[in-house]
Amino acid sequence: MKIYEIKKEFVHRVPAELEEGVLYVCLDCDVVVHKCACGCGEKVVLPLSPEHWKLSYDGEVTLYPSIGNYQYDCKSHYFIRDDRIIWIESNGKHEKTKKKRKKRKKRNIKTFFNQLFR
Ligand SMILES: [Zn+2]
Questions:
Q1: Which residues contact 82 (CB under 8 A, 6 or more apart)?
Q2: 39 alpha carbon – ligand 1 mean position (Å)
Q3: Domain locations in the chain?
Q4: DSSP character for 43?
Q5: 42 Cα–ligand 1 center, Å
Q6: How far is CA 42 from CA 6, 37, 74, in A?
Q7: How far is the CA of 4 from the centre of ligand 1 (A)?
Q8: Distance 117 CA to ligand 1 centre (A)
Q9: How far is the CA of 2 from the centre of ligand 1 (A)?
Q10: pLDDT tens digits for the chain (118 residues)?
């Protein structure tokens, strides 16, 4: 089941058994670990560094950039912002939007020609 909120836990060592819905932040090892927010149970490890993920904490945790679990079957993609999971629409939906836009463009051209040869 998809989750929409995540609890954070600051740890010195990432536990072997991860709890669902918990974001383990290990500042000793510069890593953030959590179970995939879609509920598939896959372990997601995000290294914290200027080249990887950036963690900001003001009482609530925000991670940047987004988390794309394309290596797993679920292919889930989400942001963690202010302790919340913000889901990004699946690629399928993006494609649909693109197709729609193309169709509209074609229609516009047709209208243009119709007007030209009236
Ligand atoms: Zn997943």
A1: 60, 61, 62
A2: 6
A3: 7-87, 91-118
A4: E
A5: 6
A6: 15, 9, 9
A7: 13
A8: 55
A9: 8
A10: 899 999 999 999 999 999 999 999 999 999 999 999 999 999 999 999 999 999 999 999 999 999 999 999 999 999 999 999 999 976 545 444 455 555 556 666 666 666 666 6
